[in-house]
Amino acid sequence: MTLSDRLRAARGEAPVQEAAPDAPGATLPVKPVVAATPSSTGVYPSAPTTPAAPAIPEPDALISLKDRASAALFERVGARLNNPSLTEEQLHALVRTELNKVVEDETVPLTAEQRQRLISDIQDDVLGHGPLERLLADPTITEIMVNGPDMIYIEQRGRLTRSSARFTSEEHLRQVIERIVSRIGRRIDESSPLVDARLADGSRVNAVIPPLAVNGSSLTIRKFSKDPFKVNDLIGFGTLTPEMAELLRACVEARLNIIVSGGTGSGKTTLLNVLSSFIPEGERIVTIEDAVELQMQQDHVVRLEARPANIEGKGEISIRDLVRNSLRMRPDRIVVGEVRGGETLDMLQAMNTGHDGSLSTVHANSPRDAVARLETLVLMAGMDLPLRAIREQIASAVDVIVQLTRLRDGTRRVTAVTEVQGMEGQTVTLQDAFLFDYSAGVGPDGKFLGKPVSTGVRPRFTDQFEEMGIRLSPRVFDVPTGKGR
Questions:
Q1: In a domain, 421, yes or no
Q2: Does residue 12 lie in a domain region?
Q3: Which SUPFAM superfamilies does the record match to this protein (predicted)?
Q4: Rounded to two decimals, what is the model's pTM?
Q5: Any idea of the CA torsion for 332, 335, 340, 344, to the nearest 10 degrees?
């Protein structure tokens, strides 16, 4: 009998039958068995034990815990979430206090990091935008695209990538969408399944829900910087050159009517914000937008926002209604966020009847396309106007077209600053003052090396600068060597 068998017999235990090493099912010992020695009392001590580390819950268990904690939090807080007497800071403090108590009541062992992450996630779900909260807080992310609860894409530094963030369910995504749109008095449901909205910082939001969105609710957020970009920022990004910025500042101060043209996501609203910052203090500015996005830096500003129809199909206030009404508000400048319909006719008429210095944006891929699109939008007003009359209105009203392009390297550049000179026969004549230099090629990193350069042609409107005492540096219209036309 082996020593271990004698020890087991002394404790009244049955001996263990060991299989031969080559027998089926036999296992080789991993480490030798160390025999225990009796203590002075004759009792064999048990093997030493170490305290077990807290078990780390599986992801599914964490999701289940998060759901339980969220439900318990709503039971504890209840209607206080909608208490208008509570400030945002007080509401966050209340939720965090109650949430800590809820998590403490749970028996699931959590590490400090898991606990903090759980509290943060639930707080985002209750008061914020759920898994989008961290994406919204990241200043390097410019666009968030949700294609259903488990598919979120982001645009970061001009590139599209898929994020690891996800919603727990379609209902979770719908809750976040409804929270966003309800804060500005909009609604989204089966009878009105798409909506344009905005966040508190002006970021643009578009949401589409089933039955229009087949694969689940869709949410698109175009983020705006909390600190509005200044002209020096755009120069640093390469969007503008210092010479071009000087010319555009002079155009705004000289009360020229400017149209910012560009494709989707090319930075039109950002440039419009920068141009509006050149408006002198003391002038009355009326801004008109479908959803408030402009970040004006002056004090004397009246901001108007269009309103959709209510559930009965009544009460709609369109951009065109606001443009007409703005003419009775004694504006020095009218800034229309974007023209996309019949309001274009009213805006052109305002530009032609004493409201100089107005600014707006339009979707188009070139200055020539911008003129053609303005013609089409005027026709949408329902007025049976001859094409020549429309073109004469455009040629008379618009002084400058600034073309923005999002290049294939992801950067946004001003690719043309074009003067609208007038009419020749049936054609609106245009003259480029600046054009982007594509001939400089592309660098090793895939970025375009070119920049907007002067064509050497001095626009006619510079005569107006001299009359108003606005002086430009001689370098503004200097032509780089080898770039003359």
A1: yes
A2: no
A3: P-loop containing nucleoside triphosphate hydrolases
A4: 0.72
A5: 10
